[in-house]
# Entry
Amino acid sequence: LFIAGQEDMTLTEEAAALIARIADGGMRDALSLLDLCWAHAHDITVEAVSEAAGLVGQDYLFEIADAAATGDFTGAMDAMERLAGQAVEYDRLCSQLISHYRNLLVAATARDPEQLIVCLPQTLEQYKKQAASFTPAALMDAIRTLQDTQAAMARSTSRRAVGSKVANSWSATSTPASVKAFIKVDLPALV
# Structure
């Protein structure tokens, strides 16, 4: 807040707190983010910080996890295919889903998840709500399964082909166990 005041920037306390959490105590990181925010908007709000830090536009992760929580794997795969149509790389999506499920696990098990998850307050509430749909064991299993998938993609010459085969197989199955079985048994044969 001091630096913003010296530079005649309008910075809300909530935005300053979010910058501090994103920077994780790094002064240079905080100043770089503040400068980036200033380049985008002269009134630096939580929304401006979120946009500059790339914290917005992750609704599709909640959509995929909601579909998985209810056993609607066709819906999850449809969302993944829509993302692929928007040039989202499957390996990047897999990485984002790992982070998403990690945040769900933190929201479900930590006393103060807001200290461990860098996000907007309303996004934290979404994490808490969605985490209630899973057991911690199911979240850990999802993280392991996604990590195995990511490792298989790293060994493949065609990440999209692996992702498409996974999506097609998931669409044909109806239970988390069958998805996990496909990834552990059939996916290595594809790569």
